[in-house]
Design brief:
Blueprint lengths: L1 H24 L7 E6 L3 H6 L5 E4 L4 H13 L2 H15 L9 H29 L13 H11 L2 E3 L5 E3 L2 H16 L7 H24 L5
Antiparallel strand pairs: 1-2, 3-4
Helix pairs in contact: 1-5, 3-5, 4-5, 5-7, 6-8, 7-8
């Protein structure tokens, strides 16, 4: 428990410092940019008019901070709860036992991992000036929407609205799981278990993006 608290606080402090430093050197983004995704209306196709792109406006610091808090301890708690219930039902790890105390340890562990992951991701994204908000495809065909969901896991928008590679989620996923495995999981666990869990979390993120793309209501 003490190790969990130590690494959790360390991740929060480091992530916060990186985020604040990034904001100090980042000039305010006042200009509206055009994104690299566009949807051409049937009318414009028939008339031969120039297709209009969907304008992209970088979310403000306040909006980005709210999204971070929501992912860490807001809506993110739903995923933490579900993961804890599944682990409890499977009695994983068995050293924590299927008791109320075991569930509390699993919930605390999953919560700590989630906060660490979101803090690392937020700090890196602010440092790299990336916007990792999920943007649904503006196109209606299955292939474009499927591709958008897959790419969204490993990409983000730069200040100009262009989709670029985003290493933050990859680093955060592996780091949080390795820290958990080495710091507070039973001694038989190692960084290898953390790497395996990190890969599984990335696969889960891809699946969740597919749900957001095809099941959640389009805006």
């Amino acid at each position: 428990l003490e190790n969990m608290k130590k690494y959790l606080m360390l991740a929060i402090i480091v992530g916060s410092v990186v985020a604040v430093k990034a904001q100090i050197i980042e000039p305010p983004v006042l200009e509206t940019f055009k994104s690299d995704t566009s949807e051409v209306s049937d009318k414009s196709k028939l008339s031969g008019a120039t297709p209009q792109t969907t304008p992209y406006v970088r979310p403000s610091l306040n909006q980005r901070a709210k999204r971070f808090a929501n992912n860490a301890v807001g809506v993110g708690l739903i995923g933490v709860s579900i993961s804890s219930i599944v682990s409890q039902a499977r009695n994983e790890p068995p050293e924590w036992k299927k008791t109320s105390g075991g569930f509390a340890r699993r919930f605390g562990s999953n919560l700590a991992e989630n906060v660490i992951a979101e803090t690392i991701a937020f700090g890196l994204e602010e440092s790299l000036k990336l916007d990792s908000k999920y943007y649904k495809s503006t196109k209606r065909d299955f292939g474009s929407r499927f591709r958008n969901a897959i790419l969204a896991t490993f990409t983000a928008r730069n200040p100009a609205g262009k989709r670029v590679f985003n290493p933050s989620r990859i680093v955060a996923s592996y780091s949080s799981n390795v820290i958990a495995a080495e710091a507070w999981y039973p001694k038989r666990f190692s960084y290898k278990d953390g790497l395996r869990e990190g890969t599984q979390n990335l696969a889960f993120s891809v699946g969740f993006n597919l749900i957001r793309e095809f099941i959640f209501n389009r805006k």
